[in-house]
Amino acid sequence: MVATVILHVGPYKTGTTALQKAFSANVDLLARHGILYPRTGRTRDSHAILAEALFRGDPSGLADLARESEGWRTVLISCEHLSALNQDGLTALRGAFPQAAFRVAYALRRLVRLWPSHWAELVKHGQVLSFPGYLDRVAQRDDRPFFAPILPARQLDRLADVFGVSALHLSLYDQAQAESLDLGPAFIDDLLGLGQIAPAFATRRANPSPSGLETALVYLLGRHAGPRTNHPTKRVARALLLDLLRHDPPPWRQPLQDALAQTDRIAFDNTHPLVTLEQAALAARYATQVPEGVKAYLQADRTEVPDLEKLRLDPDPSRLLARTFDSLMSAVQPDWTPPG
Asked: Which of 4, 95, 137, 281 is a good FRET partner for 32, with 20 to 30 A between their CA atoms?
């Protein structure tokens, strides 16, 4: 009988990919200590298939997960999508292990760093979204999977409702970074109590936030491609574009870099009303979960985000960039016709 289920739920942009790679690389080591990192519902390193099925309201894979878990003392499940799962999906997952105690690992990152980083990630994956547009979604409490901003208080509320507040294990991402603490060994020691094998889970940086230039380029590509282009096509074109940028710098690169440097910046800090509201909700409900660290989480911070809506290129580089976009789109979509 499974005694303990460890849910590592992220959220996004808190080192999840690096941790999952460490878990996946050490499946056999975990198994020797009675811990299953299931194959069921896992693609590559994370349990994205499982989470996405639960988002669709399809719990059928849970029976296979329960069967694979038979005879194991501890089961470790990791996917950042789980942080945004609705209560029905979380309840279904809870029901797959009715006798188990759950521990839910959630990393808090300062919103002044988290939201700009997650916005850049959404742009990287094809959303034509300005940073003010991202904050509009925050204000609207837009909570749709794969589209939504990260809303820690709401996510933690859902997790607490299903698994109980005592099941939450909150860590502070920024504090760990400031102390140069490797997230992998810390997780294995803190969540599993296996300090003797923790060094094997040393992580390497994975899925870093895109640079400002990369974010701007993919944003412009998405705007150029328009809504009629499907997501997989834009994803392939984006990969080709970034490969070109890194390996064969095109003539529009420096003009675009210069234009980006001159574009207005959006100053974003702890005084922003949305940050103030979210931090107040978190501190009121969950400060006791990180009693020694909540001050570090709430401390003043500031970042600046380029206002991509105001990004303008001179005519010649703009035409060269448009031709590059058209060439890339034609390579992945034979019937591509340039807009306008």
From this structure: 95
